Amino acid sequence: MNNILPIFRFLKSAAETGLKTALVTLTAVTGASTRNPGAHMAVAEDGSFSGSFSGGCVEAAVVSEALDVINSGKPREIRLGAGSPYLDIRLPCGGGIDLLFTPILSDAVISDIFDRIESREPFTIILDSESTDIRCMAQIANKVAVERAGTEFLVHHLPAARVVILGHGPSVESLVRLSVSYGIDCDVLSPDPGVIDNVRNFASTAELLKTPDATPLLDPDPWTACIFYFHDHDWEARLMKQALSSPAFYIGAMGSHKTHAVRQKHLEDIGVTGQEFARMVAPIGLIPSSRDPATLALSTLAQVVECYHGHFGHRA
What is the pLDDT of residues 288-312, one digit of tens each? Predict the structure, then answer.
């Protein structure tokens, strides 16, 4: 999902403790690779790091190279894997990766990037293979994750996927735990105080719904998935209408085909158009007829991840 928040949190924390650091950026891939262009690692002068480019076969070499870059204070490009002069480092997938190492000399730009990630803004990082200058700006229109213009690299980032779960029952808690373990932030809206208590320590936010009406608590951006897990369908109609009029990239609801047909009539009665209704995925999930909470949560999360990458994977 390309969630880069931990990487820039690492850089920000390292700067606050006085450690010198380097940002490592995957700028191009030849053949197969476990990571796509635009992925990052961060390395501190004490050898600690955040992020990865493989299943563990190149990270030690990346850290070693980054430490040398931190000491020299100069950026560097290297290639690992196929076509690399580092003959003892091979990627199991047989591909090659190009990396740009940039020593961090400005804490301000790292704080700026961190703030943009936290506020869920699309942005572009501009790096230079011959300069330590790092710039960040609102995202430039693009079709690929990394563009090269001479010595400059434009690295485009979109916000990571987020999930808003509306509903009640054990499936809510199952999806929260699974999503958080995968690295997706979750917000929960439920009329059940017990559900709120159960997920409060895991979800990013957990808010009690007091009425089934539209609520300012539901405010999805284009990188948010809205999941409806209501067993009492009287709670869902107006909240679904609100979600369907939002820019959320995915809206899904549990229930059978028969339940969904009844749901369509209820939504039409409150002004949801056929075009809006067609946005909803139901029955939810990739696994048909999922009934137990854990399987339903897994089925839902897999579909959300698939949909996110279908929408944004070419440039995330």
Answer: 887 799 999 999 999 999 999 998 8
Which fold does the domain 162-309 belong to in CATH?
A: Rossmann fold (3.40.50)
Q: Lowest-confidence range among 53-57, 212-216, 298-302?
A: 53-57
How far lies 13's CA from each of 6, 10, 110, 159, 297, in Å? 10, 5, 10, 21, 34
The structure's pTM equals 0.89
Q: Report residue 133 CA to chain centroid gap.
A: 26
Where, residue-wise, is CATH 3.40.50.720 in the chain? 162-309
Which of 118, 119, 137 minimizes the C-alpha distance to 127?
137
